Amino acid sequence: MWTAHSKSDAGKVVLNEAQLAKLQDRNKLLDILENQGQQIVVVGDTSSGKSTTINFLLGYPFNFVAQGIGTRRPCVMTLTPDPLREEVLFQVKFQKNDYIVEESYSQLADVANLVKSVNDPRAHPEWFDCLNHDSTYSNRLRPEDAFDETPVYVQLRHKEIDCPMRLVDVPGLSRGNRLTTQIALSYIKPDNAIILVIGKDHPNNGGFPHLAAAMKECCRTIVVQNFATTKISDNQVSENYQVIFDKMQGARDIVLYCIDYGLPYEPGLPLWQEGYDQQDWHKVNKESGIQAVRQAMVQHTEMRAKHLQERFKDSKVFSNVIVPGLDLVRKKLNEFQFHDIDGHIARLQKELKSQIGKRRGELDRAQLRVKQLQFPPEWDAMLAAFASSVRKYLDATYSATEMYENGPSGREEELILWTTDDENKRVSKRSEDTTKDLRNEVSSRKQCDEEPTHWFSPEVDSKIVGLLTEYCGFESHMRIACLRSWQRLVDEFTGMLAFAPMPCVPASLHDMAKMRVGSGQSGQLNFTEETVRLVVSLGEEKGRNQSLVRPLLEQMERRMRLLVERDFRSAIATLEGRCQKELERFHQLIRQDDFDESPDGQAMNPADVKDLRAKRYKEMKAKVLGGVLKSLLAHAHGVITNTLQGEVELNTFGEVAVDPVTQRPRVRERSGIMVRVDENSTSPGPLHWMLPFKFNNSGQLSLRQLLFNERRLLRGSSQGLSWHAKVKKRRQGWLKYMGSVSTCCEKQNDDDIGAAEVPWSRKLLDEINLNQEDGIPTMNCSNAVNLRIFRLCTEDYEVPMSPNAPPHLYDVEVLKLLKALQLEMAAAWASIWRGMLQELTDKDKIRDWITAHMVHEPVADYALKLDSFDRQVSGVRLERDPIVEAGESVCGWLSGSRALACDMMTSEEEVKKAGEDAKWPDHQAYVELLQKVDSSKVKTAFLSNKDTRLAGQPSWLRLCDEFVFVILQLNMKRVSPEELSMVRASAGMMSAAGQQEMIAKLALHRMSQLNMHSQMVFQRRFNFLWNRDVKTAMTALEGVSVSLRAVVKGGKSGMDWLEEQLNAYKDKVINETMRALQDKFDGLQPFDFAILNGRFPLNSQKLRKQHFQLQDDGKSVRLKDASQEIKDMWSTPRYAKKQTVEVSASDGKSPGVMQLSVDGTICAYENLQEQRERVEQIFNLPCSHPPAPQYAGGAFQELCLKFFKGIHVDAIHHCRPRLKAMMARLYQEEDLRRALQESPALDYLKDFGGQLLEKQKMRVDSLRLKLSTMEAALRETSSINESTR
């Protein structure tokens, strides 16, 4: 390659250092800028010989490209001098998306393998943009038609390379594939030197005429005619020249360079001629070096040019525009390389600086895009909008759903507004479909158990719903949906519990129960507990391991799931319209406008672009809303399942734990309403909350109306009596004011006493019974009784004042709710404390506790004698651990009635001995209240014995019963104006709280403080009694001290260690009991103000028309008609009896306290006492008046019915708050949003932004690498350029 400043010798170019450095800088800048700057580009048709031409122009056999369509992307080949390189080194670089490879090879075969790999669209479709899934025409292209614009760079480095040379080989034109033309045309630029290689194709068939037309703007064009021997013989060369000349529109200096390289060397090829065809260039390179092969290749083209000239000298084909050989081509390329090289480098550096600035901006935008895609506010805003819209829909009025009333097609099955009968039909149809599917799946079974689709039976259900509708205003015929329909279902479930018929008790069960009496808690003969246990067992069905109330809960669950799914589906249908802006913003975030061009490189029609965008938006919207529906249904399934069926246990791997015996998933104990005792065993017991039974079936006080003196309420108020008097005087006038000052609350009147709205009728005496398949007869209360139970459990309470009422009126309302909660807590404690005492003295449990915490250490020989009792089994002496024996002996002392006279104390003495911390809250008021009680009229364990000196377990019993009384009598701190002002705010949907919310917050705060304080006092009192009695037992039992004299455990004496373990065991039992009590309180939330209605007095009220009256002798009964008593009950207002409020004056520092009257407190206290004597009398009656042969007597059946109804009333009060809390979790916005955010069915990264995020991250990495490379190249070329000057 020769210039005015270079020397040549037989193909060898001699460049000075400055020239060499400039060429290297230029090539380096060209590589960095890719398709920018002045480049030498080789174009042509497929198989035209481009690769062979490149080899001879470079002077090295780069024969790593496959024959045919082997080049599917541009290949940039560069010769680079490297003085330190003795052997040929190939450096290959390729970067596409996240794939970057920079390898160095010494063997050309390795280079060929890599180049082949990056040109293989079948193995690596991700490296071809036209095959990308996001491409607008990927579905129309086959891999064999794929091409890509990203080049692969191959650089050859060696010390004998005298002149750098850089050529770009673009894919050959392929007929019918416009991608190849598009790539070639992208490199045909005015500043580039274009080498057009023509092969054997005729101008009418080849693509080179099209390229020639594009080359007319290029100032440096070179046309090479390959296969010249054949084409000249066919007179085709002149025609090709003319075609090119015409296409380039007479451009100057168009020369056609003819060459025929001959056959390539291939061992065994018969037509190959040595000295005429191509040599084995690799062999020459290996034997003589890279300069030798370069000289040989130059000489070969010169020889072939002379041969062409001699052979066709007579044809006169050659002229000044058609010449043989490549010598002039090399000279033109050399001239091109050095033409204005300084200016070219400067322009490239300027362009590089511009590109660096652009890349930095792109990098900043890409990083911002990554941040947006990682934490997109559009996604969170859209989910929040979905949650808000769904909540609003579920909490909507009829207007929000009336558009769906007739369904999309008007078919009845598509209605979303249902009556209770519609709900039953649909749940029946769903159950039938499920059963068919199960039968199809398990075809080997003869039959498949069908789930019941009704509460009891269709006939019984219809009767109950009819009575509820007629007498209680139940909305069975209303077509409703959403949250109100859920509440109606809970009310219907309540009605079914109230009307549940009791299976009659067989005489055999009654007889067996008589035999079991004596195993009651605390070792007492307990007929009540045995009767309750018998009643609970009536719920067991043969082969189903069911329990009482559980079948109704299962039906409740089926109905609730149906309603929730219906409403969630209809709510999702509204999101498209209600959340359109959020959907569009999210689509804008993830939208990819990569379809602006069609596969042929032409701009797409705007209408097509719009249609494609609309299609993608529709697909995205369907995917999002489908995921939302799955997420919300999964959320509903989880909430309903956890609330009703309980939470499933997980193993250490986070998987569902399966019980090895039952092969069922293990359920966490007491975690759901339907969870039974020993749920994970093969024979589960009753529902976990059903026992111990709450003995408050004598009726809980109604607190809807209280009698109070408004003057006393106002006395000591911060606003004063005079202020309220003036206000009322102005509002009502003087006469009305004088009559209202000392009456009840001004809004409480006779409208709220609960008078019967529907007159008496004979059918209220009827009973609804169930004809069971097994023929077991049932019995029930009269309809009037069941309806009264339902009303007491469901009737809403309207707060009789405005939100702006003064504090003294809120005092009354808060006292109502607080006392109702205290009654529930007292009933809960009364039902569990006997079990606590039994567990404290359970020998087996104490022995297991001691054994589990025992540290075995060697002890001296001892003679085991405790209370002069030698333990022997079959005459063989058992050597046991003395600690265990001593523990059992102490347990025997504690469970008995033995005590020392010095330990016996009254209740008051116990408080004095235990210290100040053992005094109940407001102890002085408590003492004053006790002084007002006539102990001779109230026969209870505490009031009858509070002045009796007791020790041991009797003193424990008295303390536990005292705690019941303490819970009931706790007074209430009055509401201050500041406190009332604070509770008026709400964190709910409305910023202002309603009256019920305000009252609930005030009552909750007081109840929490009273609970905490009173429980702490109880524990201190009990600890004092326990420590006293344990110490007495260990010292009074001589054998204990003797047997433990030589025992050492854990560095302590046996006596100290045993006492420590007994105290630890006691703490565990007490703490578990207190947690159970707290769980009872938590289960009351959210508060149902129907709790103010009280409970039906099952003990005192006649339940059926046929009543069995116990005679005075307690040994016989008389059958009596109780119709009149039931009618009187129906006619008597439910809430006519009012309790009186007592007010304590303020001391000036606090607002003062309020309390129910002594009579009201004692009444509530007596209602919680068991009627053991009466139960025992009825229990032992002879079997008379049975409902059917082989069944227990009528009086015992009636006794069981009372407990049966009491259990179902307790079920109502246990289930309703939890079901309402479940519904709140189903529709509250916070829970819905959390469900959408955490659901795997709506995974932003997986389903939407993940692929985009990964692409953007790869783009950021690519931009950083590219920017770093650009900056390094700019620094290197700038420094070298400065040094050469």
Describe the structure in your own words.
There is one protein chain. This protein has 40 helices and 24 strands. The longest helix has 42 residues, at 995-1036. The strands form 7 sheets. Strands 6-5-7-4-8-3-9-10-11-12 form a 10-stranded mixed sheet, with helices on both faces. The protein has a 4-stranded mixed sheet with strand order 14-23-24-18. A hairpin with a 6-residue loop joins strand 21 and strand 22 (1117-1121).
Range of strand content: 5-15%
Low-confidence stretches: 1-10, 442-448, 519-524, 595-601, 718-724, 734-748, 858-878
What value does the Rg take, in angstroms? 49 Å
Principal-axis shape equals elongated
User: Could you give the distance between the termini?
Assistant: 24 Å
Strand count, sense and barrel status of the largest sheet are: 10 strands, mixed
Total count of strands: 24
Number of helices in the DSSP assignment: 40
- Lateral strand order in the biggest sheet: 6-5-7-4-8-3-9-10-11-12
- Structural class determined from secondary elements: alpha/beta
What is the arithmetic mean of pLDDT?
83
Helix content: 40-55%
